[in-house]
Amino acid sequence: MKLPDSFISTIRSTFKEEGERFLAILPDLISETSHRWGLTNIQPVSNLSYNFVAFAKRLGRSAAQSKDVVLKVGVPNRELTSGIAALKFFDGNGACQLLESDAEHGLLLLERLKPGKMLVELEDDDERTRIAADLISCRGEITSPLLQPQLIQLSDWFEGLKKIRPHFNGGTGPFPGKLLEQVESSLPELFADKNVKLMHGDFHHFNILSSERGWLVIDPKGVIGPVGYEVGPLMLNPWNSPLDRIRLERRVSILTEKLGWERESIVKWATAHAVLSAWWDIQDGMDGGRTIHCAEIFSEMK
What we know:
Number of domains: 2
Number of helices: 10
Low-confidence stretches: none
Structural class: alpha+beta
CATH superfamily of the largest domain: Aminoglycoside phosphotransferase (APH), C-terminal lobe
Number of strands: 10
Strand order of the largest sheet: 1-2-3-5-4
Strand content: 15-25%
CATH class of the largest domain: Alpha Beta
CATH topology of the largest domain: Aminoglycoside 3'-phosphotransferase, Chain: A, domain 2
Distance between the termini: 54 Å
Largest sheet: 5 strands, antiparallel
């Protein structure tokens, strides 16, 4: 099986030595997993990025019992482990069903969603936002203390904002000082929200697919924190299309109406996530300009 050069480069640059080991054992791992879970006809998807993902057939006792599935193999890491925990918790409620998993070896076998159309493919942005709002309503409260250590804590992500000023020698770099101060001052209030749930964590138009069971999410990060954060990635996406103030204002209005949340809270979470996302971009060598621009639009909403 020949892997795309772009996939190999991404794995190497992201995971360093662990990525090299992963690439070396991947063919054998796929072969062993196929035997273990009864898989045939492994067909990698065309847009491999941070994980090996392939369509496959899982054999049943008869041809009628065989199922189309998705095999996902990744470098074992915290996000993969928390994502598996999230899929187990959701148990198909608003999410793709996890059929088998092995967190130690970075293996997941998933329900194949058909027709599998991404939400981004719908042209009506209002309709897309309403569909997404319905899925946010599926989030659940964590009652088991045993599950929490497996999940990513949202507060850990936002701790990263404390590195911005040291990184820019006491300044704020491309971040307008007023914008950064606004987000920093809003975080204590946002995290005081008691509506803490298990969230997708990367909830946007490319991670929501159509299926025979309705619209469902794929690839959750498995993040626990105030559920208001879930709107952040949605507000910033699709990343490959322009986001004007009128469209963003309409999204806020629809989310406010559908979710029953305070408009001010939605705007503050969108602003906070946009700043965090821009910081991640900068750390990855990108300029973060588009995301900072969106953060400024959010920060000016009343």
